[in-house]
Amino acid sequence: MPFHKHIHLAGTVTLGPKGQVVIPSEVREQMGIHPGDKLVALYFDEKKSVALITEEQAQDYVVQMGEDCTYYKEQIGGKK
Fold first, then answer.
1. How far is residue 32's CA from residue 47's CA, in Å, rounded to a whole number?
2. How far apart (Å, rounded) are the C-alpha atoms in residues 68 and 72?
3. Residue 16, SS3?
4. Which residues of 32-67 are buried (b: 16+ CB within 10 A; e: fewer)?
5. How confident is the model at residue 3 (pLDDT cuts 50, 70, 90)?
6. Where are the beta strands (DSSP E) in the chain?
């Protein structure tokens, strides 16, 4: 049962001696990730939590932020 409409308990992991964790197979399947894929770890201070996104998702977010900045710059610059 989800504890938030977009967040689900997917299982547990154990931190190894080198700080490594194994992502549960169900999560890997849902994310479409495979051995060797690059992930970006995001740390949320306020929640003391970590989220993993694919490198491709991170790049998509960067592109979207750039497009948003360009849009707002044009909106502000267009007002006289």
1. 26
2. 6
3. coil
4. ebeeeeeeeeeeeeeeeeeeeeeeeeeeeeeeeeee
5. low
6. 39-44, 49-54
Cβ count near 4 (within 10 Å): 6
Res 4 pLDDT > 80: no
- CA–CA separation, 37 and 59 (whole Å): 14
Q: 70: part of which helix (H) or strand (E)?
A: helix 55-78
Tokens of 77: 């610059």
Kindly report, residue by residue over 15-57, the tens digit of the pLDDT.
999 999 999 999 999 999 999 999 999 999 998 999 999 999 9
Could you tell me which of 52, 61, 56, 2 has the C-alpha nearest to residue 28?
52
